[in-house]
Amino acid sequence: MSIEVGAIVEGKVTGLTNFGAFISLPGNVTGMVHISEVSNTYVKEIREYLSEGQEVKVKVLSVSPDGKISLSIKQAGPAQQAEKPAPARPARAPRPSRPNTWQGQQPSAQPTTFEDMMAKFKQVSDDKISDLRRSNDSRYSQSASRRGGRK
After folding, report:
1. Residue 31 in contact with residue 64, Cβ under 8 Å?
2. For residue range 39-59, what is the model confidence (pLDDT) as tens digits?
3. CA distances from 28 to 25, 31, 34, 126 (A)
């Protein structure tokens, strides 16, 4: 069987490297799937997606004059992509719902509009800036009095 560009064939993973996987194809030929052609997602570790001996469907991307065959798993079809197994996650209880509070203030009984929230934010912000200025002014006046007077 000759390998034609664009053909989708079945093969078996015979070797894994940092840069891709070698696939044994019908007709006793070997092609390579580059790591970037394994999945549509970023593949850092190919061994998380493929294992030796695994049967895969691949698309023939190119056949060079010297006989090197370039293959793709992700282009063989969406159902054929090598999927990283989802890590097992322990079941968690849903978060309890909390009232919409800001800075520890109690929620109002009526729904607030964006403008109301912005006005409240501005008021709290102005109060904090005033407190900070008063604090800095008192520090400055204390250090000036130690030096012998205020400038």
Report:
1. no
2. 888 889 999 999 999 999 999
3. 6, 10, 20, 77
